[in-house]
Amino acid sequence: MTDWSPLGLVPVQGSPDTARAQASEWREVASRFDAAATALGLEQRGIPSIYTGPDGAAALDRALAGQQDPMRQAGALLIAAATALDDYATDLAGRQAQAALLATAAGDLARQLAEDFRQLKAQANPVSQLMSVVTEDHQRLAADVAAAGVRLDRLRQDAARLHELSQTAAQHCATRLLQLQAQLRALPERRVLTAGSAATAGMFAGSLAYHRLVEQLAGRTPDWVNQPRSREQVAAAWNALDPRLQAELIALYPVAVGNTDGIPAADRDRANRVSVRTDVDLVAARLRAVGLSLPESTADPADYLDRLRNLMHQAGFTDAQIGAYSGALSVHHALAHPPTGPTGAALPLQVLTYEPTAFDGRGRAAIAVGNVETADTLTVLNTGMGSNVATSIVGQVGRAGTLYRAEQQVTGPQQTAAVIAYIGTRGPGPSEVVTQRIADEDAPVLAADIEAYSALRADPENSRLVVAAFSYGSTIAATAFAKYGAKADSLVFIGSPGAGRARSVKDFTGVPPGQVYVLANSADPVTTLAQQLQDPGQADKTATRAAVQFVHGKSGDKWETVIAGGLVKNTVGPLMGAVSPELGVDPAGADFGAIRLTAENGSADQTDLGNHASYWEPGSSAMTNLAAVASGNPGAADYALPRPNTGDHFTGYDPEAHK
Amino acid sequence: MVYVDTQALRQLGERLFALREQLLAPAGSSAGDLGDALLTKAVGDLAAETTTRLVTDAGAIDDLGRGAYAAAQAWERVEAGLTPGVC
Lengths: 659, 87
Description:
The complex is a heterodimer. Helix content of chain A is about 55%, strand content about 5%. Chain A has helices at about 15-45, 55-125, 125-130, 135-185, 200-205, 210-220, 230-240, 245-250, 255-260, 265-290, 300-315, 320-335, 360, 390-410, 435-455, 470-485, 525-535, 540-555, 560-570, 575, 610-615, 620-630, and strands at about 350-355, 365-370, 375-380, 415-425, 465-470, 490-495, 515-520, 595. Chain B is about 75% helix and about 0% strand. Chain B has helices at about 5-25, 35-80. In chain B, helix 1 packs antiparallel against helix 2 (about 35-80).
């Protein structure tokens, strides 16, 4: 491009050729969309040669037809974009041609001015200056210079005007392209997560013909697939099916079979593994389509997840899809790296729930370590804040494995255990962790799941069901047991910020007397600061100081920063009119009535959030005591004094800290 | 009685797989610098959206192909092992 700056002219920038090349590319892509839609239309017309009956034919017809319109619309939008860009390129080329003429004229003027100046200088000799003689030539030259200056100014103004028009045209074109982008984004997206849930179902399993076939063979219609029935009805229908048909249904309806209460755990596991495999294959296929591949499985799940999300972003997955599919890959990762038992052998896993798209992509999953059908003790581990399938299932399975091994150490191999790593409720985000609202929403979900997992046991009369709930998960569990009829043989609160809607153990009518336990480390800020902050009389003293120390003492860890932010917000909250935490009474307090077990780890630093995670350390007092009560051997546990409370909350004095 | 041509269904799956590949064939040129930052960004954004749409639609067609394949296999299993010819 010509450099006009020495002439003082503003250039008209831009490359019409680049714009035309981009427009041409979009036209080519548009033709690809159209060709694909036409090809689908041709296949659609060929359906009668595949199916003679109406059911599968109609399903395939819908599947092929539904994809065509959005593709044609996408093509039309790209043609519109190409037209807009071509128009811009034409305008730009015209303005640049005009600007080139201006540049030529400016160049001529500049040369003329240079010559005039040279002559003026030659005439400006000492004699003429002394005599003050002004020649006619001198006057003419001076007038020419002045006129040329005016003309050059006009040229500059014209060039500036062209530049301004060009910028305006670019902005109009950009606005038009952004409008088209929004329309493109708004086009309906036809995506399925599992082959069994849409395409296959549409062409075969979803057809009435297949239902009739199943009905003929089984003597009944398994309408639970589309119309959920009671757990007992589902179990009766399922168990009456021929094993070959069960296998067919697992292959064709993995989502339904894997998540329907009443289906045995082993079959739920088989079905959910089909769904996981399908999702992993689909992610791999879509990555391959753009020249990428799944990351190598590494020992560090967080690193694996980061790399995976980055690749999916590059491949054009939406945020919701990235959430759901990364949950799928995390479950896959957890299954590929099972925890090991006392002998070092991999422990068996069962996928009891797998719904990666639930809760807007946060997902739902439950993976059991051990065999839930035959285990003598079954423990459901509920987790706390910030838990979603993608980021938390691997760690939760690890905790389940730790408890499984600890139980085996208590009981020996003559008693069997199973522990469910559960991430099945929505859970609170950082801004919601100080409120009871999410616990109220999640409690009925947890109660229903506890009941469903309990029913998976082959011999409920002679096995134990334990619910162990951690952190905010304990607030959810307390509400589920107090308000939604959850039942268990033992209930254990771990690192609890508060007992939600329960005032005391008397509210837990579904738990036998003397079977509510609490693990509260005297230096766990979630059980201490969060409790003190709920007491207006205490919020201004200990908690304030500790929370500020908290911020300065623990930087770099996102979760800790979030908690610290929450504490500070609620410490200074009264001054700003903000709300305080509302998570309920201290379950480790004497008035609550739970049996407190030792959970100390030697730390006295109430600002260290590491103490909140200490319960899960293998060999810790908390883990040993949890294993003792979970396995039904409370006599092997180490008991602790409850915290004295003058009201509902922790007063700041903990006998466990002064042992 | 419903007749299903499983071979045709399987071939449909193969054709859909091929269609997916055609849809994702790499395009020829790139946006480059159009001389105006706003327009360059708009072109880049629309190009990215187009890529997403291509990948999405290709994925949907891929699913249809898988579905056709799976349906053909399922029908074949039924016809071969469970109840030949009965639907």
